[in-house]
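Researcher: We are triaging several targets before committing to wet-lab work. For this one, the compound of interest is flavin-adenine dinucleotide. I'm pasting the protein sequence and the ligand SMILES. What I need is the predicted three-dimensional arrangement of the protein with the ligand bound, expressed as structure tokens, so it can go straight into our comparison scripts without reformatting.
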Amino acid sequence: MTHITWNEQIPHAGTYDVIVAGGGLAGIAAALAAAREHASVLLLEKQCWLGGLATNGLINFWVPLCNGRGKWIIRGMAEEFLNLSFRYGFDTLPPDWKNGEPAAPTNARLCSWYSSGIFALTLLEALKEAGVRILYDAQVSAPVMDGTHCKGLIVDGKSGRQYYAGGVIVDATGDADILLKAGVPTVDGCNYYTYIGEGITLDGCRRAWEKQDIFQAYYRPAGYEANLYGYNHPEHIALHKGATLENINEYLQKNQLEMLRKIKQEDRRAHNIHMLPSMAQLRTARRIDGDSTLKGRDVYHHCSTSIGVICDFDHQDRLFEVPYGTLVRTGFDNLITCGRSASGEGWGWDVLRVIPPAVLTGQAAGIAAAQALSSHTPLPSLPVEILQSALKKTGVIIHFDDAWLPAHPEEDPLLHK
Ligand SMILES: Cc1cc2nc3c(=O)[nH]c(=O)nc-3n(C[C@H](O)[C@H](O)[C@H](O)COP(=O)(O)OP(=O)(O)OC[C@H]3O[C@@H](n4cnc5c(N)ncnc54)[C@H](O)[C@@H]3O)c2cc1C
């Protein structure tokens, strides 16, 4: 590829303590947590509503926040967001969890569907109340670096190109886009083909009316339908790797045409697709190569730098402590990430990237950002005890109780992966 050189003067549009790039659930948690620590916060989002994959990406389902025995594991801001997600919209909580943690053990897991649109609106209100400045339709195009220090971000929007200076930059783009451009080491992930929309059917509407439950009206039209283990991935298509303009377009357009092919076979008057995902539904696109990386074999292990305990959404009993080092990289004093782009490997990445842990790592990143600024400490050297103490005050469980472990954890095959 040939290159051109392009020089331009860009207006300096503002200065903030913390700038969060990306308004998915991790970025929202980071912005809210930093604002509650009294930082001035700017949240930049390229779409026109909040929530990322968990709302406009149409992945509106909380995977379990409990251990499969009735113990609520992922708390703090994740608990706050869970409650917010159905304060004004539907939920599908199992009866055992309708009133919070049940008194008696249960195998029913704490998980729920929610309304994407209504959740996004309540998140906006929460951010506004905390004093976060939000700019929609604001595409972050580049970090401005002074060596390995990030001075601020270049943003493209309707007013043209603008510069915002920041004390700490949180990369919550989900794909580590800012970190990559800042020179932070990153690792690409692979994805099977999945594309899911949201619609209604006549039959669903009848069920919803009969049960007086609007959730029953929905159906989820799909393009390709691979699950996270690769089941159903089309044989003739290679795995999607990393995130580039070209390969994301290939992924989206192949999936959209596949969805149309399926739709053509159905009765046109009996269904409607009212929303297509406004972003590629990529599970693991790119992540920081952090100071620590959460791996499957870290299951059941205590970690002194833990920022919180998470559970395995697909397996009862499995617990992990997330090291602070999954969010930062030594040498980059004021850059931090969270959510899908936190440092995980194999199954460790899968348990770390889903919605409840994304909120947890976002919350930790926001508090860490504010603490690093007020103590003039590079983010990777932040004393983790002060971060743990602030997280604990909001209800986050930092270390699991050994009494919650299964009888024979050593027999778990994940320990050897
Ligand atoms: C197919 C699939 C199924 C899944 N199923 C579940 C499930 O059932 N339950 C569950 O809990 N989790 C599930 N997940 C995972 C979960 O949805 C995400 O991992 C989680 O929501 C990630 O949140 P995030 O904030 O890290 O990233 P994202 O939600 O990706 O948010 C990133 C945000 O940054 C914005 N952004 C990106 N680049 C820029 C830029 N340059 N400038 C400005 N803004 C930018 C995006 O628009 C977006 O709003 C699934 C994921 C996929 C792909």
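Researcher: Any quick observations?
Model: Residues 355-374 form the longest helix (20 residues).
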